[in-house]
Design brief:
The structure is a single chain. This protein is mainly β and about 425 residues long. The protein has a single domain (about 15-415), classed as Neuraminidase. The strands form six sheets. A five-stranded antiparallel β-sheet has the order 1-24-25-3-2, with no helix packed on it. A four-stranded antiparallel β-sheet has the order 4-5-6-7, with no helix packed on it. Strands 8-9-10-11 form a four-stranded antiparallel β-sheet, with no helix packed on it. It has two helices and 25 strands.
């Protein structure tokens, strides 16, 4: 979740996994993560909550603590990135990385600088705006198309724009750039754009958008004629996917898939259930993990387990309301959950099916043990590194890779 010191908002980071071993590197530091079973089962969160709100059901917050028993190695592959925001894997084993200032670059599989891409549009890099998420087309190996989003200036103020383009054969530039969608309205503020991009089985985009923070604009998270505070379902040309949950509703955007979100910074498919999971920042308290289902309302700013930064209630101070989805899990105090990824490898068997959540203000990676869509255990990894983690993904080798606000690229692998 974001805290009143908005300077911290300028930082960003993300965890991404890849399937390649690292070569020696003068910037590399190897650390062994020693893990032992947790016999107490006490929650890992020991600080007092901001609000004494009661969860809707047992285990919705402060799940029992767990510990990884498999010895793992943590390796810093690079320390030279500049406020990276997103990272994804190219089929040739390289990393495609965005930096918030408007730079997109490619790193080799062992974390060394390779190419800086030209051809990108101008971004508004202030506050939480800038060059944000990036993902490759499911048919990238044949069409070389990539999709990204960023803060773009408009007459009404900055807004979230979604663009696509072709990565040149020599991996030096983006060609045929086109903006396919703009999340309107624009707003003269610099906070809470979201955003993540994932693809469904049909190759369409699901994009998360923030509600832009301020009280006068955040209410649009509940407006079906606004693209703010939503999950959007878009074709590769930026049109609404046909037969959406609100496509027949008057005065509603047909591309709205789900609504009532605050600042969703993580999206991931659960490979075991095929459902879409989301992470989002609350205010003071109320960071959430949700399962996103079409047509559902996730409550913000009407329903939340958090409070205003001033200490006042948000709205009427309601945590449960008919017709509003409950989070699978929430944190109070906040950890600022950004990107998320499910672990789906046998490389570390005890992690299979777990959800990993990158934490900014919490400076750790949260491991959530899931059973029947409930969190039954929580672990905090890499806390001793003192880094802000922005997002993550799992490589087919079973390793995890992370980039941090401090510009580091981490590899987390089995010893």
């Amino acid at each position: 979740m974001l805290i009143p010191n908005f300077k911290a908002v300028f930082n960003s980071l993300m965890l991404a996994t890849i399937m390649f071993s690292c070569t020696s590197n003068p910037n590399t530091v190897a650390v062994e993560e020693k893990t032992t079973p947790d016999s107490s089962g006490a929650p890992v969160e020991t600080n007092s909550p901001n609000a004494n709100y009661k969860p809707a059901y047992p285990g919705q917050t402060r799940a029992p603590g767990v510990k990884t028993t498999t010895p793992v190695n943590i390796t810093v592959l690079s320390s030279s990135l500049d406020h990276p925001w997103a990272i994804c894997n190219l089929p040739n084993g390289k990393f495609l990385i965005t930096e918030k200032t408007g730079v997109m670059k490619i790193l080799t599989a062992d974390g060394k600088p390779d190419k800086t891409l030209s051809g990108l549009p101008t971004v508004v890099s202030s506050g939480q705006g800038g060059l944000l998420d990036v993902n490759i087309d499911p048919q990238f190996s044949t069409n070389r198309m990539i999709y990204w989003d960023y803060a773009e200036q408009s007459n009404d103020g900055p807004l979230l724009a979604i663009a696509k383009g072709r990565l040149s054969d020599d991996e030096t530039k983006i060609q045929q750039v086109a903006v396919i969608y703009r999340a309107t309205p624009g707003y003269k503020g610099t906070l809470q754009y979201g955003s993540r991009i994932v693809f469904d089985k049909a190759g369409n985009l699901l994009v998360s958008t923030g509600e832009r923070a301020a009280p006068e604009i955040r209410v649009q998270a509940q407006y079906l004629n606004s693209a703010l505070g939503k999950i959007l379902h878009l074709t590769k040309d930026g049109k609404a996917v046909p037969n959406g949950p609100f496509s027949s509703k008057a005065d509603a955007k047909s591309e709205v898939y789900a609504y009532g979100l605050r600042n969703p910074n993580g999206l991931a498919w659960n490979p075991q259930t095929g459902e879409l999971w989301e992470s989002e920042f609350g205010p003071r308290g109320g960071d959430e993990i949700n399962i996103i289902r079409p047509g559902k309302n996730y409550g913000w700013p009407l329903v939340t387990y958090g409070i205003e930064y001033t200490g006042e209630k948000v709205g009427e101070g309601i945590q449960q309301k008919e017709g509003v989805e409950q989070p699978v899990y929430y944190w109070d105090p906040v950890i600022s959950p950004a990107g998320i990824a499910f672990y789906n490898s046998d490389f570390i068997p005890e992690w299979k099916g777990n959800l990993f959540v990158s934490s900014l203000s919490g400076t750790h990676i949260a491991r959530l043990v899931i059973n029947d869509n409930k969190v039954i255990g929580e672990e905090r990894l890499l806390k001793d590194q003192g880094e802000r983690f922005r997002a993550m993904t799992m490589g087919v080798d079973g390793a995890l890779y992370a980039i941090t606000d401090g510009g580091k690229l981490y590899k987390v692998s089995k010893k």
